[in-house]
Each structure stands twice: as C-alpha cells, then as structure tokens.
Amino acid sequence: MAQEKKVLRKFKGVVVSDKMDKTVVVKVERKVTHSKYGKKYIVSKKYKCHDSQNQYKVGDKVLFVECRPFSKDKRWRVVNKLD
C-alpha cells in the first residue's frame, strides 16, 4: 500500500508585520469578479506564518505553505523569499 502525499496549499504574499517572535503576518491579495455586475475588485486576507529565524522583514515578498498547527492561529510556514 502506497501512502498518499497530502497536497499542500501554497500562497504568495507580502509581509506586513514582523513584530512577533518567530512569526510574520503575510497579506495575500487576489482579484475577484462580481457574479452579477462583472466588476473586478481586490480581496485581501492576512495569514500568520512561522518564521523560525526571524529573517523576513516588512515589505518582503514571500512564498508560504500549509503545515502542522504551531499555535491557535498559525498554520502556515514561510518557505522562501521571492525576487
């Protein structure tokens, strides 16, 4: 029996806060089209991500993935810096 690997969700975003220890807050923006009127608008969401070495600062573009829960709100881990 082969074990199936879980598909991890990946997001790209910008660090908006690095004030917590080993945690950064990353903002992800996506464009959505209104179902009735067809207007496009931006929806944003913030995620708390684990940063074990405190190496990411405000303004950095990062890639982060889903992982085990580190705390009540923190279920994401920063993989690397983009650009």
Structure description:
The protein is mostly beta strands and 83 residues long. The chain has a single domain, classed as OB fold (Dihydrolipoamide Acetyltransferase, E2P) (Beta Barrel), CATH 2.40.50.140. The chain is 0% helix and 51% strand. It has no helices and 5 strands. The chain has a 5-stranded mixed barrel. β1 and β2 form a beta hairpin. The N and C termini lie far apart (41 Å).
Low-confidence stretches: none
How helix-rich are the residues, as a percent range? under 10%
The CATH superfamily is known as Nucleic acid-binding proteins
CATH architecture name: Beta Barrel
How large, in whole angstroms, is the Cα Rg?
15 Å
* Physical arrangement of strands within the biggest beta sheet: 1-2-3-5-4
- Strands, total number: 5
| SSE string, helices as H and strands as E | EEEEE
Taken as a percent bin, the fraction of beta residues is over 45%
The chain-level mean pLDDT equals 95
Q: What is the number of domains?
A: 1
